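Give me the fold.
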Amino acid sequence: MLREYNVPFILHQARYSMLDRWVEDGLLNTLEDNGVGCIAFSPLAQGMLTDKYLDGIPKDSRAGKNLTYLNTETVNENIEKVQQLAEIANNRGQKLSQMAISWILRQKQVASVLVGASSSSQLKENVKALDYLEFTSEELEQIERVLS
């Protein structure tokens, strides 16, 4: 439809993270077929794919307040996966948040990610994901086993 009406369309914004992979069910292929890129938002799954929840839910956190998509139940449902992913990240020499961003950026259709950093230190930490974008096939297999 966009092509039919001559509407330029170069980037689609989609929620995408290791824990929210719906775009892999055809959207990424459709974007590629149409020469459109993707900019991923919520790549850290509202903070779940950081070190914040590895040892429990801090009272002053998003999940501790139950005000958003990220609540106690969501964290508890995913914590085992998150802890296993953190171990893989550690073995890669990265923080979990960095690996989560690197993992998304490995998709050729993904042009960028939108991170909701609440401090300059968080932003600097996230940018370090660019230092190690490559994954071995073994790492990808380990990640897939965790996420399956």
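Helices lie at 27-33, 62-65, 72-92, 96-105, 120-127, 137-147.
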